[in-house]
Request: fold
Amino acid sequence: MSYQKAEEALRKADIRITRIRREILAVLYELGHPVSHGDISSEEQLRNFDRVTLYRNLNLLLEKGLVHGVLGTDGSWRYCAHPKDVEGCPGRHPHFLCMECGRMFCLPDQAIPFVEVPSDFEVAGKQFVIYGRCAECRNKGKDTEK
Amino acid sequence: MSYQKAEEALRKADIRITRIRREILAVLYELGHPVSHGDISSEEQLRNFDRVTLYRNLNLLLEKGLVHGVLGTDGSWRYCAHPKDVEGCPGRHPHFLCMECGRMFCLPDQAIPFVEVPSDFEVAGKQFVIYGRCAECRNKGKDTEK
DNA sequence: CCATCATCTGCAACTCTGTTGCATTATGAT
DNA sequence: ATCATAATGCAACAGAGTTGCAGATGATGG
Reply:
């Protein structure tokens, strides 16, 4: 079950185990692809927590490296996490954002390439987002287009 | 002068030539690197125009392809443009965002690589942002750190 | 098992970026 | 110069995310 993995991760990161943190990690572990604050907050297990508390905990988990974030071209952040011993999105690859349904997909086969920055610049991270329409939305479009 | 280039570009794109459009393009042509709505609106020549009008025109210029946009990891868009006959940022390369001063830099020597997306996905565009600290901010830091 | 205290949570209010609706004004085609 | 069309300014709104603070909760020591 994901709760055990979640608790384990929290313990390793040396932060208190609270219900919301366990739930966030469990949800992210189970979904396995990047989801927005809104998506997370409408999950059954998290519906009754405060928006703000959710934001604060997502930021904490980001800082501690238990979760990684991808900024969509719609301006909102998606969060993704996997238990350490499970193959999954480590955040170091491009993501695809469907501008129609808002879903984000990992493109895990391709690494984000190394990029040369001017000397003396300090790199903290990279974001590589491809945007467009996913297969599902393109098919939906075809039905109603004509 | 940039105004002539600006008018030329507007004429070619077949949109009305108004004062704000001429000024936006002239400002972007002269700056030559991506700047935010806030940066643009505090430029001398544009200070007296309405926020909303500026947003609407930036969006129009984006649509018409006279300007391109880059979303920073701080969640706000930067806009960049060059006159057609001048070597400049065509938008098809990575950008560096300094998280401290908020300035964005083009990394024009390196093209954004081709990325394979799942079949039947439709690509509309790409965003590739490297974030961290620019040389200037790192130096500033050194003075006060100890 | 309970007390204690640091930390976390919920609430209200706020900021910042960007958008919409509508009345007024300017543009450029005739 | 006239006039329809398009652009502007204003007010109000929307959504994402943050801050401050009072009250609740979780880990630790007795």
Summary: The domain at 2-145 of chain B is CATH 1.10.10.10 (Arc Repressor Mutant, subunit A).
